[in-house]
Amino acid sequence: MTPDHATTDRLTELQTDWRLVRSAHEPGPEGQAAMRDLIGRYHDAVERYLRLKLRDRNLADEVLQEFWIKLLNHKLAGADNSKGRFRDYLRTVLHRLIIDHFRGRKLQPLPPGDLSDPNVPDLEYDRVWREVVINRVISRLETYEASTPKNRYARVLNLRMSSPEASIDELTEELARRTGEHLTPEAFRKTLQRARAKFLELLIQELREGMANPTPDEIEEEINELGLGALYRRYSDDAPV
Prior knowledge:
Distance between the termini: 9 Å
Number of strands: 0
Structural class: mainly alpha
């Protein structure tokens, strides 16, 4: 499969998470645009995580407001990509905000889990981040489809993901019902294989943008730590040859 170079170039021009944080704290229109992009990328993820962690919607909204106030007042401008993964940095910021909020209001005890130790896994945070990564990769795939004539990758992969037990014949019929496009089962299968290969390509790009100059081994480690290893292997095994 030959990638669409114009689309690939546009995707590689997207700022990494680290660059986006730094750009958002610069004055002028570019800084304002980066701030809007940063808020757009992470508002839902941060909100969902805080509500899961605190199990109190009002309390979570208070901490969420504190987070965005800090960001908008340029209190997170010191983000240092030499520290590695952006998701670890964001988790540390959120944990500190939760601890400070509880201590400031003298609320005891803290939420379940050791928020002060970054080496202790936070399964709720990892689950939210995994879902965010998948949604963002799907969004990239939809952008790729929209910019590539006659491309059906996103539609076909979304159909398969929404109906994992359906047969290829059933999925082909559903595609025709939704879009009026009539593919043979074999053509659908080939398109699905190519869509999965593109998904993996975009997944690696998404993860790379949240890390500091990662090696292939570090990308693989990140895939496994996020619980995406089984998905990656399944899609790799199905890749067209």
